[in-house]
Please model this.
Amino acid sequence: MHKKKLAVYMTLMALIAAPTTINAAVGENTKGATMDEAVLEQEDEGAYLPIEEDDMAPVVEDSIADDERMVFGTESEVPAVFNPVKDNMGYKLPQVRNQYPYGSCWAFTTNAAQEISLLKAGHGTMDLSELQLAYFTYHSVTDPLGGTQGDKVTYSGTTNYLNKGGNFSYATAALMNWVGAADESTVPYSDAEKSLIKGLDDSLAYDADVAHLQNVYQINIKENPDEVKKMIKEYGAAAITYCDKEDPNVYKAENCAYYNPEDETVNHAVTIVGWDDNFSRNNFSQEPKKDGAWLVRNSWGGSDMEKNGYFWLSYEDASISNTAYIMIAEEASNYDHNYIYDGSIASSGWGGDNTVTGANVYTISSGSKLESLEAVSFYAYQSVDADYTIDIYVNPTDDSNPQSGLKITSATTSGKTRYAGYYTVPLEERVLLKQGDKVSVVVTLSKEDGQVWLGKEYDAVTNSIHAKASAKPGQSFYQYPSGEWTDFGVSNKSNFRINAYTKDCDDVEAYTVTLDANGGTIAQTKRIVIKDEAYGDLGTPTNGSLEFAGWYTKKDGGTKINASDVYTLSEDQTLYAHWKGWDRDGDQVLGVYDENGKPIKNQFVCDGTYTYYIQNDGTPMKNRLTYHPNGKDIIYFDEKGHEVFDNFANVKRSISGQTVDDICYFDTFGSMYIDRTTYDRTGMTLYYLNPYGVMQRNGWFQFSNGEIGCAREDGSLLKDQFAYDQWGRLVYLKGDGTVAKGVINDGVFNYRMDENDGHCLEIYQ
Model:
């Protein structure tokens, strides 16, 4: 760890220890950018303002090691040499820009990284205005949708904002809110001196943009150099800071080689565009420990390999800040509107646990007839290798709960943050919104074995720069682990850096689909659809215990409409919810519906435990005996409609107009026992079910086969014992409950029992 940065890290660790928030303060020490004497004479205060984020990039795991590089053909994913200045890499770097005579390296480096990313993406060569970026970073203009009203950036001290200095954090915050980037021809750097006197027209803040910064990856260049190389190969450039000195012991002009062995405060921003692992350490004025150097693009107007243009910066340079910034821009035509609340350029993190959830709620207010929510951005503050989930809710019904609206499940989007930084994520499915609709964007970051933070704006005064943050109730929300939401703006006076990007749909043929829940409930009863495009997610209603079967064109029957089906009508439409499954009130079954939402009638159904018979009126049969579908066996449905099986039951039936409770037994198949004995579930007590299926009780009786038995009041049969029949004669009841006949022996005596009725005729030894 660098000594000069120890205090910064100790401060950071103290902040991490706080339960809910990290505040990344702007660095207090600044030095002027060193370039040449002419520029030095013009400088007032400084060029690059160091900030803690410059040294806070967390280390990502599993960075590609030298001996573990993936090979594609004959070229590794991270080659030893990558030099777009010398070699043909499929693109030609733009002309080196010239920041003279102001300390605006931060703006030039930021735009260089954007320009090269656009070039690599096939958008051609762009020349973005550094003057516009620098001016509106420090001269606040409320965004076109009014979300940043109350947020402001002011500065004191020098009146020369171009020599006030800046950093990548400020530039990123401004650019993510579409303050820039304008074309150089619209806001030329040559007008810089004029702008110091007259300023720039406010319309140039948002109306002149030709590109949008969409992703910013913060990578630890000291610990993960191969990750930086991979990103440069993919996107063309990485923005860094270092301490520049006009010292022949540091810069060897004949080799265009720069190496500062001292860990000094940074003062200059430059762009890395390549590297050479084999660049000899002997090429430097002072010899570093290892070979290798970054190919650096400056902003001092040089045209070739020279310090003013391109030069080599040793991997071992001790003054390089830890954080490399990968800035990825897209053409401004990608989206039409940027819904934002975070107008402050100061950033910090909220969280510190393994999960953090924040939400911004926006009201669609651009004035367009119809908009589609296409993408969402968030700031994964110091959160590497974290899982993210974006959920979209429309028209919350509870102003204090951003999840109370209709969840557009088809728009839910998940992924992983490889690096810390800003992520713009296209949604899995766009969400159509009309004027006045409220849309809630809920972002969750989680990491099973680490801490995560969600980026936010905050109110800060550093380097005589006041980044003022303000927030109104109902804009941003934070969810506690318990699931409870709190108004983040009210409690913290700041907003999350969560943006919502929309596109106008004024030129489309749109219609309204009314959703009839058909006995159920749904959060939003109307959805917008576009002709000749898919319906999209229509939402899922609820209806007690019933399962939603789908949306249909008719209340009963009709055609099922799926999310992927194309809307072909030239008029509005009403769709009806159909239900399937078991309609229950507690443990009472009210009805059953098939896959098409039609009620099941006149048939047996089973819920996995019990069998029911659904009658013609759609209700289950209760307290009734009926025939099994085999037409032979008799079954019984109790007071809950359950088919009774493997048990006794109190069977209600009417005899001569009187309701009688009979006790009957039904086997494992639900069939009534008739003229049969059975044991209860203990296997000890025997019962007899007579020819009517009724339990025989209270006294002597005759089995249907003529045999004689005796039942107690509770229906249990006498067995394995002597007894006296109703005439007082001795009889013996066998184990099957019938009276014994013929000769029996109790181990001592012989008993001769009558062959007809079983009474004892003689006892002898």
About this structure: The chain has eight helices and 49 strands. Residues 1-45, 64-75 have pLDDT under 50 and may be disordered. Helices lie at 6-16, 37-42, 105-120, 130-138, 168-176, 192-198, 225-235, 488-492.
